[in-house]
Design goal:
99 residues, mainly beta, globular, six-stranded mixed beta sheet, 1 helix, Archaeosine Trna-guanine Transglycosylase, Chain: A, domain 4, 6 strands
Amino acid sequence: MDIPGLKSQVNNYPANEQRISDIERGRISNAVLPMPPGRSLCVGDFIVFALAYSPASQEACYVSGGDSIRVSLTEVTDLGTVDPATGEAPFRLSWEPLA
């Protein structure tokens, strides 16, 4: 979750309880995720999957005090496209959970 007035060095991605659990247990170790304009990621960077809910047709809302997991990226692949609806570039990210 970004803190107002503080530029976050960690990219945050919304996740449901099942996805967080699967990442914690090592059942999911990669995904195609959007890269917001002006942000970048490389091997060794950290990302956070944080509990969020998505009201119909609205942007995801993070749950205050909700579960989250931080992972260390082991692979970052630019898929070379841009989503015309969001303007964000999809990247394939692989990671290892932090103990």
